Amino acid sequence: VILDGTSGLGTSFLEEALVSIKNQTFRDFKVLVSDDCSPENLKPIYDKVCGDDSRFSFRRNEENMGGKSLVSHWNLLVDMCDTEYLIMASDDDVYEPKFLEEINDLTIKYPQVDLFRAKAVRKENNKPVLLDGNIPEYQDQAEFMEYFGVKKMVLCLANYLFRKSALKQMGGFPDFPTAAFSDSAAAIFLSKNGIATTEDVLFTFRISNE
After folding, report:
1. Contact 116, 179 (CB under 8 A)
2. Which of 158, 159, 154, 143 is closest to 194 using CA atoms?
3. Residue partners of 98: CB distance under 8 A and separation at least 6
4. Which of 7, 21, 54, 210 is deepest in the core (most CB within 10 A)?
C-alpha cells in the first residue's frame, strides 16, 4: 500500500485514512507514506497513528513533484514498491476493515488477473452521492468497458489493486496532464486479463470543499 500525500487535504483526513489502513483484518502488508513536500507538518500524524508499526515507513520529497506532474510521484512510488501487488492510496479516503482480506481472496481465486477492485461509495462533504451498482465479481475487458464510465461505478484510483509487474511492463501510469484519466487508462489496459471486484462496498472516495 502506497500512501501518496498529494491531495492537499493534509491534516484534515490523513489520520482517518491511516487508521483505516492500520485496522485491516488482513495483516500481511507494508505501507510507504510519501509526503510530497507538503506545507503542512504531516510527520507527527504519521508518528501518532503508525510510528510504532514496523509495517509502515515514511519518506518526504525534497521538492514538490505533484504540482508539476502528479503521475511522476505515482511512478516514483511504483519503482520503490517491492511487493507483488500495490495500491496507490490517497491521504483522504477510507478503507473498510475487510478491504485487504476480501481483495486478497480475489487474488487467490483469480490468479491470472492483474487488476482487482473494491466496490466503492463516493461522498461529497460527507454525504453519499454515488454508490457502485451491481458489478459482477469477474469481468473480461469488454464487459468491464461496458460498465466503465457508463453504468453506476465510482471512478477513482485508490480502490484498485494492481499487479506491480504488469503495471511496470506498461511503463507505469501514463503521464497525462494533471493526471486526468491516468488511473483510468491504466485500469483499462490492465483489465486485458480480466478484472475481479469485491461483493461488498469496502472503500469510501471522499471529496470535500476543504
Report:
1. no
2. 143
3. 24, 25, 26, 200, 202
4. 21
Q: Which three cell numbers stand for residue 5?
A: 500525500
Q: What is the pLDDT of residues 64-123, one digit of tens each?
A: 999 999 999 999 999 999 999 999 999 989 999 999 999 999 999 999 999 999 999 999
Q: Is the pTM of this model over 0.85?
A: yes
Q: What is the DSSP string of the chain?
A: -EEEE-SS-GGGTHHHHHHHHHT-S-----EEEEE-S-SS--HHHHHHHHTT-TTEEEEE-SS-SHHHHHHHHHHHHHHH--SSEE-EEETT-EE-TTHHHHHHHHHHH-TT-SEEEEEEEEEETTEEEEE-----SEE-HHHHHHHTTTSS----STTEEEEHHHHHHTTSS---GGGTTHHHHHHHHHGGG-EEEEEEEEEEEEE---
